[in-house]
Design brief:
- This protein is of the alpha+beta class.
- The protein folds into 2 domains: 114 residues, no CATH class; 68 residues, Nuclear Transport Factor 2, Chain: A (Roll), CATH 3.10.450.
- The protein contains 8 helices and 3 strands, in the order H-H-H-H-H-H-H-E-E-E-H.
- It has a 3-stranded antiparallel beta sheet.
- Strand 2 and strand 3 form a beta hairpin.
- Helix 5 runs antiparallel to helix 6.
- The radius of gyration is 22 Å and the shape is elongated.
- It starts with a helix and ends with a helix.
- 19% of the residues are buried.
- It holds the Pfam family COMM_domain.
């Protein structure tokens, strides 16, 4: 990860660190590595989304472990310096600054840790379509609904999950959502 961190400009690295801290503080549902990777690539840096996701996971582990052990800024920086693969100087400076400013606020209660093992729903989009024909069937003309769920996994990576439903399946899906809404109103 240290070799890939060297490629990331300091401002993008700082943004990534701040998003991770915000995610660990439950202020944002996750880190949109796809969007950040695209912006980094646009700036001329050759990095792929898989490498950026690994860096985000490593930093998330670093910050959550530091919070769990109540490390001071100096203890964290000293620990980073004694690592096998040393981080670039700009990365250590960013980590020091972000941890000094926002690190102490990370909630590490047992409840928060248990809750973090489940993904978090971020957004849902849907669209109605009609399949007109295919190579094997001349006249389909059946409607379907495509649903795209945006979720943040426990590490904070935001991903989209898409699926299609027939109209009867969608009606059942909708009925279940109405049941959830009515139960939530009684709470």
């Amino acid at each position: 990860a240290a070799d890939k961190i060297r490629l990331i400009p300091q401002d993008f690295f700082a943004e990534l660190c701040e998003q991770i801290i915000q995610h660990l503080n439950h202020k944002i549902p996750g880190i949109n590595t796809a969007e950040l990777c695209q912006r980094i690539q646009t700036s001329g840096v050759d990095i792929n989304i898989g490498d950026l996701a690994k860096i985000a996971n490593t930093l998330s582990f670093l910050f959550s472990t530091a919070a769990r052990n109540n490390l001071s800024t100096e203890e964290l920086v000293t620990t980073l310096g004694s690592g096998v693969s040393t981080l670039p100087k700009h990365a250590v400076q960013v980590i020091r600054h972000v941890w000094n400013e926002q690190g102490k606020a990370i909630a590490v209660s047992e409840d928060a840790r248990n809750m973090a093992t489940v993904g978090q729903f971020v957004d849902m989009k849907w669209k109605l379509g009609v399949a007109m024909s295919s190579d094997t069937c001349r006249s389909l003309k059946y409607p379907y609904v495509t649903v795209t769920l945006t979720v943040a996994d426990p590490s904070g990576q935001i991903t989209d999950k898409s699926f299609e439903m027939t109209i009867p399946q969608f009606k059942n899906f909708f009925r279940q959502f109405k049941e959830m809404a009515s139960v939530l109103e009684t709470v």
